[in-house]
TrEMBL record:
An MF annotation (GO) of this entry: galactoside 2-alpha-L-fucosyltransferase activity
Record field: transmembrane: 95-120
Predominant location: Golgi
GO cellular component annotations of the record: Golgi cisterna membrane
Protein name: Fucosyltransferase
UniProt-listed InterPro entries: XG_FTase (IPR004938)
Amino acid sequence: IINGSNVSEKPRDRLLGGLLTADFDEASCLSRYQSSLYRKLSPYRPSEYLVSKLRSYEMLHKRCGPGTKAYKEATKNLGHDEDNYANKSAGECRYIVWVAVYGLGNRILTLASVFLYALLTERVVLVDQRKDISDLFCEPFPATSWLLPLDFPLMGQIDSYNKEYSRCYGTMLKNQIINSTSIPPHLYLHILHDSRDGDKMFFCAKDQSLIDKVPWLIVKANVYFVPSLWFNPNFQTELVKLFPQKDTVFYHLARYLFHPTNQVWGMVTRSYDAYLSRADETLGIQVRVFSRRAGYFKHVMDQIVACTQREKLLPELASPGSEPTNTTNIPKLKAVLVTSLYPEYSDNLKSMYWERPTSTGDIVEVYQPSRERFQQTDKKIHDQKALAEMYLLSLTDKIVTSARSTFGYVAHSLGGLKPWLLYQPARGKTPDPPCARATSMEPCFLTPPTHGCQAKKRTDSAKIVPFVRHCEDLRHDGLKLF
Ligand code: GDP
């Protein structure tokens, strides 16, 4: 409720500390300038250097983007007679194409990673629009387009690119056919959970000496590879200037890039205004169940209750006979936003707080927007609901998320929230402790390379730079910025 409720009284920072330009038409994408109405004033400011880098990126994108002379020039010789490419010019612009694969959380994390790599290497990011990306997000770059044109010469081949593809960088390394004197017009980067170290380490200085000259990079990724970019000393120098607060990388990039379309934003604001805006405190709980037979499990329900009570995120129930009669304190209204594919977790929580009073007298209201039951990636309305829910979670005051879930990572990082992470249950048991508070709000790189750029094979990649360490939810694995 823009005029009337407490939303309008919050101090505003419409352009997010200069992160956003004022150059867009507001009505075409309401979330872009309205999101600040729904958030607390951010304690994290983007650096001036990041802001200036984004403005120069926008100029570059405008100069090289679809429909420009430069784009035409760059695509002219692509896809046919590439073997005789050596003497041909691809023009002044270089590109990186992001291909939509895996779930929405994965996609958001990888697009942010690809964008950061593009910022560091002065490439132009274009996104594969054949999936529902434009039903989810507005255009982030002014006076141009981030959508890869449908008549892009390699469009017909992209889906078949995999580890076996002859222009897959890791495969070329393995087959020792890297030749820095002949630069291919395009390369495929395979940065998935099953990648080899050779694929994952494309950012190292020795790899960049070739890759940097290739006009077109096509990427399929499902991991947040940002933490590993710091292993390249050249990038590191830049990154420290861009992000003096190291655990704000995704936070700023996501707020710059990902503006939900009006349709999704309507879902976000209707939920917020109906269920969250009047509460004294809000808590988000994201429940992701990864076991093969997914659904409702008592041990997961017990874990949610154990975590929220132990960490004092929700009040305990009054024991029978000792219902609070003391009403000197004004009871607080706590709104709990639950997101899950399954409805049972929030149904149970709701019954729990309806059937018995709390020991504090506080009122707990439980709300779950959707109940999709199973993942239906690429179905428009399903993906829109998923995005609306990630975004809503990011608007809560405190958040509990599930270990290893990129859906949860997006929600807490976008919100600037250090989550309580529900450990992944093993053998059908409630983990003890049930959850732990994260010390950084960044997403985790779930399947990082085993070592750094210079290091020998067995050097732990969490020991290379002091602020890149293992993730809290994986204990001795993953990489994350702190
Ligand atoms: P991850 O698998 O947890 O890392 O997250 P992803 O977002 O990559 O993939 C899971 C997909 O399942 C989501 O994109 C949604 O399509 C669906 N999904 C999982 N959890 C939820 C949820 O809480 N709400 C909704 N609406 N969809 C969900």
